[in-house]
């Protein structure tokens, strides 16, 4: 076995040697280049370790080395910056001032000879001083003979807002032109040539009010003066001046105050001349705290002039908030003397006769109460009842001689009125809004058979919808129940005066039918300057009457353009 290992080893050595012999074959000598190269480098001295120790420390020296310093102490206040500091608002770039468009002119025409002209001009955006002027003309002609009517209004106002007081002033002129076009369907020839009437009204008003303050002991005041002149195409004239003052002292949650008013005026015609003056004093005390508002006082009324009397009435109001912003209950007990005037009568019924009797109406006792509040965003409501006892309530009746003119009589005695009133407002969004109001009244006259031209049901509603930024729509409806009118079959007057107790044998009652009046409108904004509008009235085209013998206009439509600047 050992022999075999020797043999194998010898063979391996010989084989390796043969390969090595072949790898080391001798090559021919190459050409040799002889050149001397000198290498130079920077000098780097080398020091011995012993030389590196320049000085040996003295181990026996234990003295402490103290360096000398030159410095001075400064007395500086320690600032604490741990508190939250006020953030400084970054100044924004100046925005471009908005261009205010508060002036406009409007004009339109339509059926029934409708003509509309309207204009308003005002001052700029100065909040301390404001002024403006307004003009409006509207005329229309119906299908009946001389069923023409026109109204004009021209007014101007000014306002100065000071640090403590605000001053207001207003000048107003109104004209109402019409004809006594009333026609009796049973006797259409009774009014062949209707007379023309024109009522002119001129008014001046000034007011001073102190600005509100949150001071618990503040003293508030206000003063107002109003004067007007009224005349018609015939001989009726009226002038009046009203002075109103208000003073209130706030003492914490209480208020002590006094409201005073003086109404001075006279009414004249061919056969009448009445001086009618009233002085009112209303001292009161008011509590306002924690959802409770109670005002208690008296209303002292003194009549002088043609009529002379002294009366004292209660003046109490209360308002309780049961659920803030959602439910409030309120009530009122009061009384007053209502000053009747030719201005109030012509505003309600312009077809008045001459020599109208003027007499004041006494509201002996008025009790009302109800609830009001909101039912959420965009929803508001109010409901109340009222009960009144009224002495000498004025009523319109057709004159016996001139059937198309109205006299004013008085229901001598104390009549009773019971009523319900409801209001609702729904705003679904900024684009859709609806409001509605209803009045139901029950009259119990004193001496007369009925309360003439006093409907027991009145409903009014308005609807507005904005389709987009350019187009919007509106609609309204007015509903009125039947009412009664008195027609004389013989002359009831005695020496030109209506007797206090009516003679039922000389009169008869006529029913004035109720009505439903629908109207719609649309507005389209062409651009920032121009807009177009259209209106349609009495869509049902009903020839209803508010007063006997006077039919209103039927269906009419008109439209036009407005320009803002």
- Summarize the main sheet: 22 strands, antiparallel, barrel
| Overall strand count | 26
Order of helices and strands: HHEEEEEEEEEEEEEHEEEEEEEEEEEEE
Tally of DSSP helical segments: 3
Low-confidence stretches: 18-26
* Structural classification: mainly beta
Radius of gyration of CA atoms, rounded to a whole number? 49 Å
Overall pLDDT: 89
Distance from first to last alpha carbon: 131 Å
What is the share of helical residues?
A: under 10%
Q: Which shape, going by the Cα principal axes?
A: elongated
Beta-strand residue percentage: over 45%
Give a short summary of the structure.
With 565 residues, this protein is mainly beta. It is 6% helix and 55% strand. Strand 1 and strand 2 form a beta hairpin.
Describe this structure in words.
- The chain has 565 residues and is mainly β.
- The chain is built from three helices and 26 strands.
- Strand 18 and strand 19 (471-480) form a beta hairpin.
- The longest helix has 22 residues, at 2-23.
- The protein is elongated.
